[in-house]
Amino acid sequence: MSTASGKTAEDIEGWVKRYMELKSAYQEYCRLGKLIKKAVKGKRRFSVGQYLLTGKWVTRKAHIVPESKYWHLKIEHITGE
Fold it and tell me: pTM, whole model, 2 decimals?
């Protein structure tokens, strides 16, 4: 059976199955991201093992949501080349 987009039920089932497999990995990714941000919040540069973490405070201007401030974190892998 085909859907309006021309994809078969088997195609969609495969996508849903893979989506559900990735869901727990994504949840762990988000949880670890929060832990890392909390641990280094306020530190502009932080080196740990093979990684360099840099961060900065960013002020979000008021438009639809009220003005707020959040910590933006960037993680880079340091290569030994």
Answer: 0.64
